[in-house]
Design brief:
The relative contact order is 0.08. It contains eight helices and 13 strands. 42% of the residues lie in helices and 25% in strands. It folds into two domains: 7-146, Threonyl-tRNA Synthetase, Chain A, domain 2; 198-314, Diaminopimelate Epimerase, Chain A, domain 1 (Roll), CATH 3.10.310.40. It is α+β, with helices and mostly antiparallel strands. Helix 1 (7-31) packs across helix 2. The chain has a six-stranded mixed β-sheet with strand order 8-9-10-11-13-12, with helices on both faces.
Length: 328
């Protein structure tokens, strides 16, 4: 049997692991924050610090200190020490085991009990970059990159910001304000579009109501929208039945059919009972309350058939034992 070390992967892990030792010590010195967790990921690594609500300015100083140690190219040594020798070492945290312990030392900066792989000098770690911070209760999770990972991330950020700067015709320093203005413009445009849609729907519901046939004492609006959203269907049903004496039987076509049945408060019908009958006949389902019920789950091509069934069932309201009638 033969084994082969994947050197690129091994060296990447060595950079991240040694970088974690350096960053953890820097966070202790600058923030008095102890590392209580470490995860070496495939794309990014994290340390969990026992501090809530990190001061980001102080975290930047910790990052700067960590990189200064990298630039100083200090030796990194791993050796085994007896229990008595370990007791005399300035370990960042006490070891979890008794007896002989392997200790990794960054000369003059950090000593930690560790069994992992590490570089020989801090310069081999390469740049250390903090890329994200999460607040997790009483702890903070710091995402970081070292070495080749950090340089790849830097190149990607340069490419992205260059595209954005060119698209918005601004410099790097003006990019946040330009994005904020775009977001504000987008919010305003969405509100304007929403207002316009509502005005169009208002006009459409008024036209539907004006053309609706009178069935006894009720105006019955039966309408099929070839496409759209279920929220639009509900909105139209509620607008139509906000006035007295109106029944709305609305359907939405498209790939998946949708139904919205509604009636005014003064009409003694149970829309949920009606809706339970109709979608079942075309392969769907639904539910709701006496005044408004919605359904779907059937082929949009059968939406017109569903409306015809609802219209037919509504015409039987006066017959005895009709489940669609509410008690008055």
């Amino acid at each position: 049997m033969q084994g082969r070390v994947d050197w690129a992967r091994r060296f990447d892990h060595m950079q991240q692991h040694t970088g974690q030792h350096i960053l953890s010590q820097a966070c202790w010195q600058v923030l008095r924050a102890e590392t209580v967790g470490f995860h070496l990921g495939d794309e990014a690594s994290t340390i969990d610090l026992d501090v809530a609500g990190l001061d980001l300015g102080a975290l930047e100083r910790a990052e700067a200190l960590a990189n200064e140690v990298v630039f100083q190219d200090r030796p990194v040594r791993a050796a085994f020490f007896s229990e008595a020798e370990v007791a005399a070492l300035p370990l960042r945290k006490p070891p979890a085991v008794r007896g002989e312990v392997r200790v990794v030392q960054v000369e003059g900066f950090d000593s930690s009990a560790c069994g992992g792989t590490h570089v020989r000098r801090t310069g081999e770690v390469g740049p250390i970059a903090i890329v994200r911070v999460e607040h997790r209760g009483q702890e903070s999770r710091v995402h970081f990159l070292c070495g080749h990972r950090a340089t790849r991330d830097h190149r990607q950020r340069i490419r992205i910001t260059s595209v954005l700067m060119a698209a918005l015709t601004v410099g790097l320093g003006d990019l946040p304000d330009a994005v904020a203005r775009l977001q504000e413009d987008l919010r305003a445009a969405r509100k304007e579009a929403k207002d316009l849609r509502e005005r169009v729907l208002d006009a459409e519901t008024e036209a539907l109501l004006a053309a609706a046939p009178q069935v006894g004492e009720w105006k019955v609006v039966r309408h099929l929208l070839p496409e759209g959203e279920a929220t639009t269907l509900k909105w139209m049903a509620q607008r139509l039945t906000a006035r007295p004496g109106v029944v709305a039987l609305l359907a939405l076509g498209g790939d998946r059919g949708q139904l919205a049945f509604a009636c005014s408060e003064d009409i003694p019908l149970d829309m949920a009972a009606l809706l339970r009958e109709v979608p079942r006949a075309v392969g769907g389902g639904g539910g709701g309350g006496p005044r408004l019920a919605q359904g779907g789950g059937f082929a949009g091509a059968r939406a017109a058939e569903a409306l015809d069934l609802a219209w037919e069932r509504l015409g039987q309201v006066g017959s005895s034992g009709n489940p669609t009638r509410r008690d008055g």
